[in-house]
Task: inverse folding
C-alpha cells in the first residue's frame, strides 16, 4: 500500500489520468526497462470519492507476473493497494473489505 497527499483538485486529476491510462494501454507498456504485456480494467469498489481497479501483467524473464491494484481517492488523499498471486491471478486482488478497513483508519 502507498499513500499520496495532494490538493483535492490534483488528486481528482491523478485518478482521472490513471483511469484514462488503464483504458488506453490494454496491450501493455514499457517503463524503466520493465515490460508489462497486458493491462485489464477491473470493477472498482464503491469506496471513497473515486476508485480505479486494474491488473497489469509484468514480463519478468520468461514468467508472466499478474499484479492487481486498487486505487482509491478520498478528498486529496490517494491510497493504492497492490496484490500479487503468481499461482492464481484472480486471487491477487486485495479484498474490498480489507481496503475499506484500511481507508476507515485514515
Result:
Amino acid at each position: 500500500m502507498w499513500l499520496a497527499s495532494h490538493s483535492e483538485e490534483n488528486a481528482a486529476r491523478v485518478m482521472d489520468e490513471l483511469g484514462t491510462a488503464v483504458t488506453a494501454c490494454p496491450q501493455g507498456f514499457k517503463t524503466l526497462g520493465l515490460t508489462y504485456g497486458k493491462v485489464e480494467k477491473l470493477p472498482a469498489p464503491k469506496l471513497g470519492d473515486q476508485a480505479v481497479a486494474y491488473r497489469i501483467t509484468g514480463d519478468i524473464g520468461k514468467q508472466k507476473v499478474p499484479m492487481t491494484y486498487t486505487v482509491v481517492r478520498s478528498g486529496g488523499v490517494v491510497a493504492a493497494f497492490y496484490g500479487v498471486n503468481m499461482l492464481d491471478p484472480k486471487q491477487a486482488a486485495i479484498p474490498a473489505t480489507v481496503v475499506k478497513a484500511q481507508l476507515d483508519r485514515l
User: Anything to note?
Assistant: Strands lie at 2-5, 29-31, 34-42, 50-60, 63-74, 77-84.
